[in-house]
Every structure is written in structure tokens, then in C-alpha cells.
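sanity check this:
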Amino acid sequence: MSKKGKVLVAMSGGIDSTVTALMLHDEGYEVVGITMKTWDYSSSGGSKKETGCCNVDSFNDARQAAVEHGFAHYILDIREEFGGFVVENFVEEYLAGRTPNPCVLCNTHIKWRALLKRADALGCEFIATGHYAKIRQHDNGRFVISKAVDHTKDQSYVLWGLQQDLLRRTILPLGPYHKTDIRQMAHDYGYPELAKKAESYEICFVPDNDYRGFLKRRVDGLEERVAGGNFIDKTGKVLGKHKGYPFYTIGQRKGLDIAFGKPVFVTKIDPDNNTVVLGDEEDLDQNQMRVTRLNLIKYDQITPGMEATTKIRYKDAGSLSTLHPENGDMIVHFYDQAKGIAPGQSAVFYEGDDVLGGGNIQSGWNRPQ
């Protein structure tokens, strides 16, 4: 029995999760590797071969690393629960005129819970992943997620939904390192091919990156149901016909197939009337939003008016704001305009590098002057 304890490591076959498992093994943990099969891409009818975490090569790469270093490895099939929750939510959100965050939903409701359940069955005290973020226990006793040292790889944004019972048992070894360090470690461990392995930034069940095609294949008769709607401006003037409101996202500029002699952007989506509002770039600016389905991390409650840096998308640098709890939701006041607030996306609140919490964006608007 290891003095460090027994840890279940999620291994996708990629560089980050493989190095995570080997680091913990070297540190003295009793490591058990597990690879989760979430999706059969062939069932979605896409044009691209399986890539990323759900193909046979990745399973074999993960198993090989475990065998070579003398620890157990299992494959966990979670396709049914993944498809019934994450994929269906993805479709429903687009049909509701919102832009979903499937990776956040998967982390929060599927992967971590599946890992914890299997960890308990295997007698593992901890679970670990190759995410770039850090976890520590705050002076108040709560477990806190904070940004990785490598801010270019930081993944704290997609972990805001993890609750305290999950965080207290989670180890994220890569948080203190830069990606270049991890590539060097892969070389040092004897896996130079991992350091060269391409990283996937696509949604795992849409590896051809064509979510519109995925929706069409997933929902029978979707094109016929939503075709013929109008592009309108903010005054309601009809500007032309669009291909169906689910095929557009807030802030979209390309692929509108409509010419104005200047750039125009999707500023609002109205599913009830099958209309898509177009406007200038400044029409995307808003300074207030409502966030629902909150999960608070650093503190168990937010003091009204507390200052925070709020991110409204993964690659967002964040904007200075104040937080105002209201009936279980959070009203966020931005000091300056935030561009492209998209209902359905995640909003994550930071105090310095620490995640205060997050939630789903319900709506954005401008405060009256």
C-alpha cells in the first residue's frame, strides 16, 4: 500500500494525462489508469475519422503506458450517460437559441462523477486528470480552483462546475507547470511521440468541427422546420432570409451569406419567431448580465458588490465587474462594455487567480444611462 494513497487517473492517451499518471506514479502514489469512452463518432455521421479521446489508438496508447510502468488500466464505457445528457443538452440549447458549453457540462455532471464512482469501487482515495489548473484548500476550509502557471493553457474556466465533494478528492498535477515542461517530461519518460502528438480543440462528438451538420443529422427534419426565417436589424426591419436560427451564434460574422458592404454581426437570436438580429460590432457591447445555475467555490456566498474579474468565454481575458446575488442568480455589472455576451455560455468569476464560482449566462443587456 502506497503511503501517498491510491489515485484513479483519467488517461485519454494524450500527452497531458499520460504525464499526469507517470508523475503521480513517480511521486509514490498507487496509480490506476482509466480511459473513458464517451462517444462513437461513426454514429454521428461525420465526414472525419475518429480523433481525440474516443478512438482505439488513444485507448491503446493509454494502456501501453500503464503496462510499461506497472500499474493497472481499465476502460470505462460512459457512452449512454454521456449521449443522454451532454449530447442531448447540446442539441436542446441550440434549438433554444443558446450557445452551449458541452465540455463544462461533461466535466461537471459526467466525467468527474463517473470517475468518483469508479474510484470508490476500486478503493481509490483520489482522482486525477491532466487539466491545467490548481486546487488547494483555503483557510476557510473550502477547496479552491485557481489558474495554472501557464496562462496560455489554463483550463480553470471549464472546471467551475465542480462541487466541493469532487474538489477535495481531485489532484491536478500539471497546474504548476508550463506546457513546454510537460513536453520535456514526455521525452524524459521515453515517449517522444507524445510530445509531437497533435492536440484536439474540437468538441469530442463533433470532431469535424461542423456543429451545424451534427444538428442536421441529429434532429430529423430540422432544416425544414427552421428554414425561411428572417434576418432583421434592431428596429425589426427585415434584411433577408437565413438558413435557420440554430445555425448561428452570438458574435458570428462569417458565413452569414448576406452582403451589406460592411461587417455585420449576429447580436440576438429569437427562436420563437425564427429571427436572427444583425448589427454593428458595437451592438455586441453590453455591461450587465444575469447568470444562473451557480456553483460557488472559494466562498459559500458572495457579498453584494464584490469585485471580480469575469470571463464570458474560454479565451476571454476577463473583464472587471461587480457581483450582485439575486434570488439564487448572479447579476454581473461590468465596469466597461463586455463584447458578445452569449446566453448558454459559461460565466466564471475570479478573485485574482482563484475561481470564485461560475454559472450559465441567461441574458445580457445594457443598464439605463
Notes: The CA atoms of residues 141 and 190 lie 40 Å apart. The chain is about 25% helix and 30% strand. The longest strand covers residues 285-296. The radius of gyration is 22 Å.
